[in-house]
Amino acid sequence: DNLVINGSGKLTVKANYNDGITSKDDLKITGGNIKITSVDDGLVGRDILAVKKGTITIEAGGDAIKSSNDEDNTKGIIAIENGTFNLKAEKDGIQAETAVLIADGSFNINSGGGSVNGTKKAEGNMRGAGGPMGGKDNNFNRTPPTENDNTNSDKTATAETETESKKAIKAISDIGIAGGTFNIDSADDSIHSNNNAIIEKGNFTITSGYDGIHADATLSIKGGKINITKSYEGIESAVITISDGDIHVTSSDDGINAAGGADGSNKININGGYIVINASGDGLDANGSIYMTKGTVVAYGPTSNGNGVLDYDGTFDMTGGFLVAAGSSGMIQTPSDSSTQYSIEMTYPQIQAAGTLVNLQNSKGKSIATFAPIKDYQAVIISSPELKKGESYTLYSGGSSTTTATDGLYTNAKYENGTKVVSFTISSSVTWLNESGVTTAKSSMPGGGRGGKGEQRGQRPIVPQDQASPAQ
Q1: What is the DSSP string of 377-405?
Q2: What is the pTM of this model?
C-alpha cells in the first residue's frame, strides 16, 4: 500500500536483509532527517516516489532511490521538489522505470564507486534508436554490452555476461531537471535517459566513468551551469539542442556527440549558450549535421590526426554565433560552404605549442578573435559575425594580450607583439589558409574537411602532422 513519512524528526534504518524503506504503491516523504544503510535498495516506491523536502542520506548495496513499476507508463516515477540528498550506491543513485523529475534540491551522488571504476567504450557499435544493441539501456559500444533494467543489469539478448548499471540519475522514459545543485561521481553515465532529457536550470559538477549526460532520443539544455570534469564522451544523444547555459566539457573521446539514430538523423543544434570543449577525440561530432545560430563555442580538439575538432557527416550550417576551434590538422573540417556566416581555417606547417596565441584582426587593427589553445595544435577555425565578404584580415601568432584569458579566450583585450602569419581577403563562405595565403579546401567533403559523408569511422585517412601539407 502507500507509505507517507512526514515531520521533522530523525529516522535511522539499517536494512541487513534487503531494502531500507519500500512501498508497494506510493512512497512520499515531506520532511525529516532520514538515514538508511541497506544491503540492497535504499528507498523504493513502486508507483511513485515523491520527496517534498528533508535530508536523506543513503548507503546502498543496490540502488539508492528507486521507483520500480515497469508495467504502467503512468507510474514508476520519481518526483523530487526539494531536499538534501547524500547518496552512495553500488548500482544506480536515482533510478526510475518511467521518469525522473527534479525541481530543486542539493544532490551528492556516488554510484558504482565513482568514475575510477568506469568502463571503456568499444569502437564500432552504436546504441539508441536504430542501434543494434538490445535491452532497455542500450549503452552505445559498452564493454561488456548493455542492460535489461528489469533486473538492473546491463546485457543484450546474446550477451553471456552481465554488468550492473551504475549510473547516477537514470530513467527509462524521460528526465526533467528544472533546478538544483548536483555533485556527481559515477562509474557509468552520470545522467542517462533511454528516451528524452531536458535540463532547464541547475548547477552540475560531473565526474563520469562513461558519458556525462546521455539521452537516447533527444537532449535539450535550456540553461544552468554544467561542468563535466571527466568523461568518456561528455554530452551524447541522437539529437542535441543547446539554447542557453554555461557548459564545460572534458572528455577522453568526443566532447559533444550526436549519434545512435538512423543515418543522417543525428543533429547538434546550438542556439545559444557558452560552450567550452576539451576533447581528446572529436570536439563537436555529429553522425548527421550541425546547426549553429547563436552562442559561443570554444573547442579544443585532439592532438592526434585520427580525430578532428569538428566532425560531421552531413553539413555544418553556421548562420550566427561565435566559434573558435583548435586541434590537429589531419581530419580537419570547417563549417559548410552553405553557411551564411563566414569562417576561416588556418593550417600551420608545424605543430604550434599549447598557449601560443592566435589573433585575427581586420584591416583597421580591430581584433576579431584572440585565444590561446590549451593544447598543442596545427589547425584553427574561426567564425564570427564580424567576418565580412570582400574585407581584408591578418592572422597573427604569439605575442601577448593585456587581459586575462577565460578558457583560453581573450575578450576586449589589446593584442600586441605578435608575429604576422598571413594576410588575406574573404571571398567565399569558408576561407582556407596556409602561411602562403588563401588555398583550397582539403577535400570535397562537407565543409572541405576529411572524413565526411560516405566514409566509415575508423577507416578515414590519417595524415601524420609532420607530413601534412597545408594545401592538400
Answers
A1: EEEEEEE-TT--TT-EEEEEES-EESS--
A2: 0.87
C-alpha 244, offset from chain centre: 14
Does residue 105 contact residue 127 with C-beta atoms inside 8 Å?
A: no
Q: Output the CA torsion sign for 426, 429, 435, 440.
A: negative
Q: Per DSSP, which regions of 178-321 are E strands?
A: 181-186, 191-193, 196-199, 203-208, 213-221, 225-230, 235-242, 246-251, 256-258, 267-279, 284-286, 289-300, 310-312, 316-318
Q: Are strands 267-279 and 235-242 parallel, antiparallel or unpaired?
A: parallel
Compute CA 449 distance to the chain's CA centroid, rounded to the nearest angstrom.
23
C-alpha 226/C-alpha 174 separation (Å) is 19
Query: What is the DSSP secondary-structure string of 421-432?
Result: EEEEE--SSEEE
Residue found by looking up cell 598557449 in the block: 355
> How far apart are the C-alpha atoms of 245 and 403, rounded to whole Å?
24
Query: How far is residue 168's CA from residue 197's CA, in Å, rounded to a whole number?
Result: 14
- Amino acid identity, residue 361? Q
DSSP 332-348: ---S-TT-SS-EEEEEE
CB 374 within 8 A of CB 327: no
Q: Which amino acid is at 468?
A: A
DSSP letter at 46?
S
Q: Which residues of 350-372 are buried (b: 16+ CB within 10 A; e: fewer)?
A: ebbeeebbbbbbeeeeebbbbbb
Amino acid identity, position 25: D
- Tell me the C-alpha distance between 56 and 93, whole Å: 12
pLDDT digits (tens, 9 = 90+) for 173-204: 999 999 999 999 999 999 999 999 999 999 99
Question: Which set of grid coordinates corresponds to residue 76?
Answer: 514508476
Q: What pLDDT digit, counting tens, does each position of 381-423 carry? A: 999 999 999 999 999 999 999 888 999 999 987 899 999 999 9
